[in-house]
Fold this protein.
Amino acid sequence: MADEHLLLSKGEDAIASKVDGVTDHGRVTLRLATSVLIAVLGSFQYGWHISVLNTPEAVIKAHVHATDAMWAAVVATFAIGGFCGTQLAAVMANRLGRSRTLSLNSIGFVVTGALQCAAGFISEDNHQAAYVLLLAGRVTAGLSCGLATVVVPMWLSEVASRNIRGMLGSLNQFAVVSGILVTQGIGIAMDTNELYPYLLAMTAGLAVVQLLGGGLVLETPSWILQNNGAEEAVAMLLAARGYSLSAAETELREIRTATAVAASVKPPNVVELLTSKAYKVVRWPLTIACVLQTTQQLSGINAVFFYSTSFFESAGVKDPQMGTVLVGGVNVLAMALAVYLMERAGRRKLLLTGTMGMLVSSLGLVVTLVFKNEHPGGIHVGTGGNYLSIAFVLAFVSFFEVGLGAIPWQIGGEIFPEAPRATAMGVAAAVNWFGTFLVGLLFPIMNSSIKQYAFLPFAVVLATSFVFQYIYVPETRGQTLPQIQGLLRQNAPPCLAGHTPRHNSNNSSFGDSIPGLLESDRVRMGGRGSANFSIGESEDGRRYGSQGSEENEV
């Protein structure tokens, strides 16, 4: 008997689109646009805190009397806070809702601004206290940023209709790179002992805006459906999509299908997700998400963001701060291109292109720095080596935004079923933050010890990840959750593929239920080996597929 729950064939996909697809995707309403603008302030804050210490690094180090090791600890504590924030995210998002969690998270940024500003106003004679406050501020910044890296992408993926899911999801990373650029530009103007405390305090002002505007942010329809009922979920869809009532009800049925299992299953904690047999089917998507998040951080991109000023200085660039701002500007432009291409080129193609581009750029940077510093064969590249180094760094950053910048977060919101989604995205984000911690702590040591070869280990990571992506990462653009699950199972190693039921069952195992999500709402999908598929009516008037006819009937 053919597996009933494998990916639909092309002919059956056409029928499935009539079963549970929404033909009227509505429009982007003012309410949705306002919600997105306020929600992605959390991602903007993440970009802000990645880069805020970069430009005034020398001034702050002198004020708090920080050695290189002490400064590396300042960078690393940000990642420690981020790791902890990812573990809070799932609990808060499931209990309080996605939008309320984002509003409450802004309080952490207010605390961060107060601590870091206070550190800047403490006299240099009491530099130990200033250093402690700076460390504390970095921890609270990391805590709020870590929570934002989980909840913002999840909110965007759940609030978007399928036809704009990629575009809205990529706005998360666009907000991050915008935060980096704005911070770098303002940092140049405020790179003095007198002004840098105000620079560090600005995060609190942004947080107050998000806190005051939190009531305007729409809750996601799937969370509302599970916690507040169908009536409020329909009201949200009407506000977000500009739908007619019938179109909103149609999408609500699709959401009910996708959340049917989640409604009867308690969201797992991390231990249950990683060890329970019931969630075995989720562990392969989790593996993919964790590999992509690891690659994102160990690709070397944060080495550029954290230490770009000192990197350009060591490369012989006359104005390293302007080089840093140039990186930020290219970063935003490349991400804008990625937003445009996300629903046109697809996730997989952009991911592979971006990873290969970063690999070539990192190798080109290493070769350029070798010729610049070691002169093999008596070749002297002179000042041309400086410009070539900058070109490869800019190419490296551009390819990052096209691929590894947005897509690991985007795919994370698409490949996990509803019940374990928050926990699974929290685990993947925790892996990301651990990578941030390692790079922030170890890159200064790598840069001083192996110098021009510092990007070579990153190239090895990129090459390995490219092979993994090519073999295992599916295209998720325009796919429903059951279709994505089918694609994942086709290529998954047997030990991680999970069990796929071969018949209708009332088995309560979550792992067995995921491939049959559509069955929960009386939708039947024909197997690849079956040509029998028809459209019928359920008791609530919804059309559903069933087997048994000799021809496909619509």
Notes: The chain has a mean pLDDT of 79. The first strand starts at residue 534 and ends at 537. The chain has two domains: 1-21+481-554, 22-219+265-479. The beta strands are 534-537, 543-546.
